[in-house]
Amino acid sequence: MVYAAALTDPGRKRALNEDAVAQLVTPYGGIFIVADGMGGHRTGEVASQMAVDRILGMLRQSEPSPQALLEAYEAANEAIYLAGQKPESRGMGTTCTTLWLDLPYALIAHVGDSRAYLLRDGEFTQLTQDHSWVADRVRQGLLTEEEARSHRWRNVITNALGSFPAARVDLVGLKVRPGDVFLLCSDGLSGVLEDRVLSEMILTNPPEPAVAKLIKLANDWGGPDNISAVVVTIGSQVPERSRPYALPLETSPGQPVRLQSGTDLEVLTTQVSEPPPPASFWQRWGSVILLLLWFGLLGFVLFNQFGSSSGP
């Protein structure tokens, strides 16, 4: 049901590869991770590997759920943050994007500017929102996508695992369809190749040659940064089964549902998303009836008071 490949490369300009990737296909789907470390002096390499190891280790022992995914990110954030308090490790952190397939659902956790994309029925969609200075300006309408791609501050990250004592995580969920293709990548790929090239590569190639060709193309275009790609293709059949968080995700069939960080995920994932019952007659017209009665009573009082005094 799931075919996947992961590959990372230092690129043409960097001596060290501070990216890390992981893939684990499971009976229920799989776990796929891309992390892009920062901090220099090997601390970026350490941070990205810590994130991948901690998150993968926790998820493989957990029942899939948004809560378990958030807890894994919080544990990774705490470990990296504490490691970064050493003088030689100041500034260490990492982006991290995880796809947790629990077929027929996909859960995605995201911090930083590594990305998750979905190719479905020929449409290529970015599922994550970059946590970066230029991405914020694009969303504010102050920069265009083209300007952001070449801006001198395009590598300034506004959120990373290990940068703050508490994790700030975006969670995305959607229902998977047969033939869906997911791409996870670091900005060493998405910052070099346009979306149309990314989509063409994963549309026309199985996962293993797709990741190899993507990295080769990024290197052919200069390879200015470390490059990582994970491609996950869903087979022709997707099991239909219920999950504890199924109903909220099915409120928008086929569309990603963004689960905001900081909400009560236990409540969110167990609530029943049924349409509200139709309003009763009193719910629809009660306030109008009360208002009419009030005016009627007021008119009656005024008539009795002034109507009687104006008589013969």
UniProtKB/TrEMBL annotation:
Keywords: Hydrolase, Membrane, Transmembrane, Transmembrane helix. It comes from the Bacteria. Pfam families: PP2C_2. The keyword Transmembrane applies. It comes from Meiothermus luteus. Residues 3-234 form the PPM-type phosphatase domain. GO terms for molecular function: protein serine/threonine phosphatase activity. This is PPM-type phosphatase domain-containing protein. SUPFAM superfamilies: PP2C-like (SSF81606). InterPro entries: PP2C, PPM-type-like_dom_sf, PPM-type_phosphatase-like_dom. The keyword Transit peptide does not apply. The chain crosses the membrane at residues 285-303.
